[in-house]
Specification:
The complex is a heterodimer. By secondary structure, chain A is mainly alpha-helical. Chain A has a single domain, classed as MetI-like (MetI-like fold), CATH 1.10.3720.10. In chain A, about 80% of the residues lie in helices and about 0% in strands. In chain A, helix 1 (about 5-10) crosses helix 12 and helix 2 (about 15-20) crosses helix 12 (about 210-245). Chain A is globular. By secondary structure, chain B is of the alpha/beta class. In chain B, the strands form 2 sheets. Chain B has a 5-stranded mixed β-sheet, with helices on both faces. In chain B, strands 7-6-8-5-9 form a 5-stranded mixed β-sheet. In chain B, strand 1, helix 2 and strand 2 form a beta-alpha-beta unit. In chain B, helix 2 (about 40-50) packs antiparallel against helix 11 (about 245-250) and helix 10 packs across helix 11. The chains are: A mainly alpha, B alpha/beta. Chains A and B meet through helix 5 of A and helix 3, strand 7 and helix 8 of B.
């Protein structure tokens, strides 16, 4: 399992890799990847946290259907996600026409990349967040309400802090998925340096002409993914501790 | 119970292996790495041959990179002659042969306001009447179709070249990705091969480039030096020069190479 990862670092020397990162196109790609994935993550956290809380604590008609739909992008091939986004939100799509009239264009724009990343990465967060909220002792939430706290206050002051380790894990997984996104971005948003060409797209573009550049970008993504994974493991360890105190 | 399951799994694995061995003996499989633009023609040719082919279609530069990294490929067919020549100099493929030619065209969706115009008129309109600016998709640099496109644009007056490059919204990894952006209505115009417009089934219109802008688009093919099946690879290439392969290519809208 580790062989391909080690090979990325062994194929070219560290000095060569470092030099390749000085290229404008690779730096642009990393900057764009960071901006779009952080924006997507922010949208996922702001919208996804209350949504996951409602899914976890309310029983309503069509709840299981809603949960299945929310999780669908998890198993959807990225190319399918890209084609779906293109025919729905592209200039010829049924929603695309409306948003185009409103003066918003997504295809070939950085905003389109954010939409693609949000779409494919959100279920990674929602699943974890929902499980974290479901794992809370309902008596805590009840106690908060009995003491006169509103539903919103209960959510913000009791549920979110208590579910924090699960939320952090979900956020890290969603961020990792967003950073690695390739197929949906290429098909929906295209590939243009500085606008839509994120690091994975730049890697695919460089393989044919500049293998060292592709390896250097890959090395950065590996390092970042490893850091994310490590932070997830650390929060998971902290979780046991937190519950003991609670 | 556990032991029984294990025995069952083992039996299945062995049965699986047996099946593979048999198929290997019956027919030698030929792995052909080919430029995206060859997709339809090579698949049609594959139906006609005795050999069992496995095709891998992608941008020629990505396929060349795979061969450089030692991918087990028997035949390399690129949308230019420079990539096979470069691999030959590196000792990775045998002497390449130029087997077919193509034309680069400006292409637009069939309901486009630019459809039915000449290339000069269409480009003039795009550059001078900038509102709304057309969204262009072209091949990335290093991909043959992207390099041909830049060659064409470089022959335009400087201001026009810069204007068209300014309309480019996406640089795609292979020609089929360009076609997809146009058939879905995401983009307004692009540069692809004449055969790709034929393959798009009436969704796109080809606008022929004037002779002075037309680049020489010739395809090179070579046997990969490490091939386990050089005889079958040679047979496959022979069919491209004269036979079922050549017929399939001409049917798909390709042209005989210069000097034939």
């Amino acid at each position: 399992m580790t062989i391909p990862i080690a090979a990325i670092f062994l194929e070219a020397g560290p000095a060569e890799l470092w030099d390749a990162l000085g290229e404008e196109s690779t730096r642009e790609a990393l900057r764009l990847s960071l901006v779009t994935s952080v924006t997507a993550l922010a949208i996922i956290l702001v919208v996804g946290t209350p949504a996951a809380y409602l899914l976890a604590t309310r029983d309503f008609r069509g709840r299981s259907v809603a949960m299945t739909l929310v999780e669908l992008p998890l198993v959807l091939p990225p190319a399918v996600a890209g084609v779906g986004l293109l025919v729905a939100l592209g200039p010829g799509g049924f929603i695309g026409g409306l948003i185009e009239d409103a003066g918003v264009q997504l295809v070939f724009q950085t905003a389109g990349v954010v939409v693609a990343l949000t779409f494919v990465a959100s279920p990674f967060y929602l699943r974890q967040a929902q499980a974290a909220f479901e794992g809370l002792d309902p008596r805590w939430l009840e106690a908060s309400r009995t003491l006169g706290a509103s539903e919103a206050r209960t959510f913000a002051r009791v549920a979110v802090p208590a579910a924090m380790p699960g939320l952090v894990t979900g956020g890290a997984l969603a961020w990792g998925r967003a950073l690695g996104e390739f197929g949906a971005t290429l098909i929906f948003a295209g590939s243009f340096q500085g606008v839509t060409q994120t690091a994975p797209l730049a890697i695919a573009n460089l393989i044919g002409t500049d293998l060292t550049g592709a390896l250097a970008l890959s090395a950065v993504l590996v390092a970042f993914s490893a850091a994310l994974l490590a932070s997830v493991k650390l929060t998971a360890r902290g979780k046991g501790h937190g519950l003991a105190v609670g | 119970m556990k032991r029984l399951a294990l025995a069952g799994a083992l039996a299945l694995t062995l049965a699986g292996c047996g099946g593979d061995d048999e198929s290997d003996e019956e027919t030698q499989e030929l792995t052909v790495s080919a430029a995206s633009s060859l997709t339809e023609a090579f698949e049609a040719y594959g139906e006609e041959t005795e050999i069992e082919e496995r095709f891998s279609f992608a941008g020629s530069d990505d396929l060349a990179a795979q061969i450089r990294e030692g991918a087990p490929v028997d035949v390399f067919a690129a949308a230019n002659t420079s990539l096979p020549d470069a691999l030959h100099e590196e000792g990775l493929v045998e002497e390449p042969t130029t087997f077919i030619a193509n034309e680069l065209v400006l292409t637009v969706p069939k309901d486009s306001p630019y459809a039915g115009r000449t290339a000069e008129e269409a480009l003039r309109l795009m550059v001078d009447v900038v509102d709304p600016a057309p969204d262009f998709v072209i091949g990335a640099e290093g991909v043959p179709v992207g390099d041909y496109t830049r060659e064409v644009l470089a022959k335009l007056p400087e201001g026009d070249e810069q204007a068209i490059l300014g309309f480019v919204r996406s640089e795609e990894p292979d020609v089929k990705s360009i076609v997809a952006k146009l058939t879905t209505g995401a983009a307004d115009a692009g540069f692809v091969y004449a055969s790709d417009v034929d393959a798009a089934g009436g969704e796109l219109v080809a606008i022929k480039l004037p002779a002075e802008l037309q680049p020489v688009v010739e395809y090179g093919v070579a046997i990969v030096s490490d091939s386990d099946a050089p005889d079958e690879a040679q047979e496959f290439i022979d069919g491209l020069l004269d036979g079922a392969g050549r017929d399939a290519l001409l049917d798909a809208g390709f042209l005989p190479p210069e000097g034939e």
